[in-house]
Write a structure and sequence with these properties.
Layout: E1 5-6, H1 18-27, E2 28-38, E3 45-56, E4 64-67, E5 72-78, E6 81-82, E7 87-88, E8 92-95, E9 105-115, E10 122-127, E11 134-139, E12 159-168, E13 172-175, E14 179-185, E15 189-194, E16 207-210, E17 213-219, E18 228-234, H2 244-262, E19 270-276, E20 283-284, E21 289-293, H3 304-320, E22 327-329, H4 335-353, H5 359-375, H6 400-432, E23 435-437, H7 439-450, H8 455-462, E24 468-476, E25 482-491, E26 501-510, E27 516-525, E28 529-531, E29 543-545, E30 555-556, H9 560-569, H10 576-591, H11 597-607, H12 614-617
Parallel strand pairs: 2-12, 18-19, 19-21, 22-23, 24-30
Antiparallel strand pairs: 1-5, 2-3, 3-9, 4-8, 5-6, 5-9, 7-8, 10-11, 11-16, 12-15, 13-16, 14-15, 17-18, 20-21, 24-25, 25-28, 26-27, 26-29
């Protein structure tokens, strides 16, 4: 039976609460979607037909709802029975209990129509002003996939998606899976069919369609029988700016590095990089189909910093293919972990798996600096928090989420050691592949892989706010050597808590001619004062800086001898990251009233002209 039901005129609040999501996840499982989309040229709407199969828990007695923010429902059948008056409020489609089968598979068939979104989320349509080319793409995080089709739109009801798209024959179409066929359809259309995906969270479903230009290339992975098919695409008017060799190299670097670190090769069958016009954010890690803003297309010769920034974005999104896509958060309160992990993993890949070996300086100045400013402000908040509903997902998406979260994971990686950290990650991906996991699950995997308890660490770092200040105090011995080196810690602002820091103290000594050498001493700081026994008996240094390699998270205190050294020879420090940390530490001392502004101005006049690293000068 055919029917046409328009969405209600009154604007309902389109939101999903965590309580609702948890109840629905307990009732619904084994979801499979077969979705066909019909895209017509120069049309304001698109049509869809979706067949959804799902298991309903035994003993479930109430209704079940799907999320669907559409324009029109043309037909709806539940378990073979047509529903002539569906319960649909414009964003939530409720299936009646009487039509459901508890303890069995249920079959829902919906034919519908929807308008393209105008704000860049959901299913978005763009017309190129240069050549009138029409481009359609999706952006669903966190809660917009149900603008494409009726779905169980939450991260912990994963579903397999079989997608087919009918579109004008001149268009290319991309989906999450590899295209398995393209056959003529109707008058001038082609039906593109894609392989069924493994279980995915709905916000990771994606497609793109239009006269995209570009090409595919192969990326070999050690131990994988066949190379991964990778593509790079843009709208036609930007084709001449596409950097195929660069993307092939970056993709290969990420696949190899993450495959080794995570103990699991790239978990999907293909990958397309697609530049999307007017894309709302920098990039989005859709499974097998990464979307990028066109701001990352180089219209002129890129600088080294430009190349590092692009590589960071590409590595960040590819890291999500494991952390976020293969293993997905259960709810949006762990989105900070999803993003922080990808940020940290990208920095690891940059510095250890690519030519961008100075990327920790970018990490420090762009992310840690951002996080420190926000963490030392009245609006600070803990890294881990609660998200009551989907509207709250991005409320705390800030320097704490991205910057401090990534910095704290760098500290955690140092605390566990590379072998322990990698072992925990491998266990995590093995245990939760194609499923969901919480922060507690992640920490459990790391504890088991490393043998280090993280209960205190988690409470100190993830559930409190505000920075600590770390300093280094040298007590000379009678014979002119270091009698004792002590790392000090105090509360700057926020919660009254002293945290555990695994850090390295840099002792600076004179080298040949005007050179300076660095001697590093590791310490696990656990309170207000922590001695560093390995430094006892060493010669008194020119300067002491308590955060070599930038492992600790917080502000730094520098003693007077170190400040005098900086005022006369700061540029002599051979480690660019350590020089950057010293400059930033002194700047923070000025902001906190611990170093006179006049003295700082003189430091800039005297030393900045001698700095050879442009990233530090900037």
């Amino acid at each position: 039976m055919s029917l046409t039901i328009e969405a209600p005129g009154a604007e309902a609040r389109d939101v999903l609460t965590q309580v609702e999501a948890a109840a629905r996840a307990a009732a619904v499982s084994d979801v499979r979607y077969a979705l066909r989309l019909d895209l017509a040229a120069n049309a304001a709407t698109f049509r869809g037909q979706i067949v959804t199969r799902f298991a309903l828990a035994a003993g479930h007695t109430g209704p079940v709802f799907l999320c669907f923010r559409g324009r029109t429902i043309h037909s709806l059948t539940l378990n073979g029975v047509s529903l002539e008056a569906p319960d649909w409020n414009g964003y939530r489609l409720t299936l009646p209990a009487a039509g459901l089968k508890a303890g069995a598979e249920n079959l829902l068939e919906v034919s519908y129509e929807n308008a393209y979104d105008t704000g860049g989320d959901g299913v978005f349509r763009f017309i190129d002003p240069e050549d009138q080319g029409e481009y359609i793409y999706t952006n669903f995080e966190p809660y917009e996939a149900h603008r494409m089709a009726p779905l169980f739109d939450q991260p912990d009801i994963k579903g397999k998606l079989s997608l087919s798209v009918a579109a004008p024959a001149a268009w290319r179409v991309f989906g999450n899976g590899a295209e398995t066929s393209a056959s003529p359809e109707g008058a001038g259309d082609t039906l593109h069919t894609f392989a069924e995906t493994p279980p995915l969270a709905s916000y990771l479903f994606s497609f793109a369609a239009g006269p995209f230009v570009g090409r595919r290339f192969e990326v070999a992975i050690p131990g994988r029988a066949t190379p991964v098919q990778v593509g790079l695409w843009s709208r036609g008017s930007l084709e001449k700016y596409l950097s195929y060799d660069l993307f092939q190299k970056m993709t290969s670097q990420a696949f190899i590095y993450f495959g080794d670190l995570f103990g699991r090769e790239y978990p999907f069958e293909k990958l397309d990089h697609v530049y999307c016009p007017e894309f709302n954010v920098g990039a989005m890690e859709n499974v097998g189909l990464i979307s990028y803003t066109e701001r990352y297309i180089f219209l002129s010769t890129p600088t080294p910093s430009d190349l590092t920034d692009l590589a960071e974005v590409v590595f960040h999104e590819i890291a999500h293919m494991w952390f976020g896509n293969l293993v997905t958060m259960r709810w949006w309160d762990d989105l900070w972990l999803n993003e922080s992990f990808a940020t940290y993993a990208a920095a690891l890949c940059l510095t250890e798996g690519s030519e961008h070996t100075t990327a920790w300086q970018e990490f420090n100045v762009q992310l840690k600096r951002w996080s420190l400013v926000e963490d030392d402000s009245p609006t600070t908040h803990p890294i881990a928090g609660t998200v009551a509903d989907t509207d709250q997902t991005f409320l705390n998406f800030d320097g704490i989420t991205y910057g401090k979260g990534g910095a704290v994971l760098k500290q955690l990686g140092a605390r566990l050691g590379r072998a322990g950290f990698s072992a925990g990650l491998r266990l995590h991906f093995q245990r939760h592949a194609f499923g969901n996991a919480t922060l507690a699950d992640f920490l459990t995997s790391l504890e088991e892989g490393s043998g280090v308890s993280l209960a205190d660490w988690s409470a100190q770092w993830l559930r409190t706010s505000g920075p600590n200040r770390l300093g280094a105090l040298i007590t000379p011995s009678a014979n002119g050597t270091i009698g004792n080196l002590t790392v000090t810690q105090e509360v700057v602002s926020g919660d009254d808590v002293l945290r555990e820091h695994l850090l390295r103290v840099a002792l600076l000594y004179p080298g040949d001619a005007q050179a300076v050498t660095i001697e590093s001493h590791e310490a696990l700081v656990t309170g207000a004062r922590t001695d560093v026994p390995s430094a006892a008996g060493r010669p008194l240094p020119l300067a002491v800086i308590p955060n070599h390699d930038d492992l600790a998270v917080g502000k730094l205190a520098l003693d007077e001898a170190t400040l005098r050294f900086a005022e006369t020879r700061l540029e002599a420090i051979p480690d660019g990251l350590l020089r950057q940390l010293t400059w930033m530490a002194i700047y923070e001392l000025v902001r906190d009233g611990r170093y006179p502004a006049v003295r700082y101005a003189q430091l800039l006049i005297d030393r900045l002209p001698h700095e050879v690293d442009s990233s530090i000068v900037q």
